[in-house]
Specification:
241 residues, eight-stranded antiparallel beta sheet, five-stranded antiparallel beta sheet, elongated
Length: 241
Amino acid sequence: MSSRRTAVVAGPLVAASFSAVLIFSGTAGAEDEGPASGKGGKVVDEAPAGVKLTTSLPEKISVDNGSEKTAITATVKNEGSQDSGKIRLLVVGFDGLVVKNVEGCSAIPEKGLPEGSNSGFACPLDNLAAGKSKSYAVDATYDLGKTGKICLPVQTSDGKKTFWQQGPVPFGTTNPSPDAPATPLLLGTDNKPAGPGGKELPKTGPARDLLPLGAAGASLVAAGVAGMWWSQRRRTGRQEV
């Protein structure tokens, strides 16, 4: 990942031509999702007057221990009194959690992914009316031998501002069940791989909390620790203009 060139996740990079992705059938977890939660979310850039954008993820998902498939519902909501105008929701996977498909959205090409991530989809919205929400069915896989995180930024349609960002927030369990048909994972919990013989957990620390992306965007909050994803490069880009 360290050799990957960071790039701007802009309109041309999330065109429909990149959206051909296998949709998994029989994915575990769709019926197991708990209440929705905005855990790990934070306002980044100020939204237009009267617009309040948030996201939510299920409190609980379930991973099939054989296929590693899981299903997640990602929801964006406008809790304000005014319509949002054109925005986009990104759904990005990290570490053991790989986003395979988001219904109605376009895959972000590898060169456009944020550094440290492994997959992502962009979901454009022409408008989200005041008090309304939109949910997206997310098909993913989860390597239970690793930690896994997901991130939901809500941006302007060109990606220059990020009004809200949930994550990267982990899903995981401290009580793995390798012999069961499926393993339940909880939002906001670092995963503990089943052992012995489990794969080594990826190293964590301050270096992994800083995930620079390209020139357009805003900051990212990394698993409860304030980190910067987009904003540093964006400010630098403005100075160079």
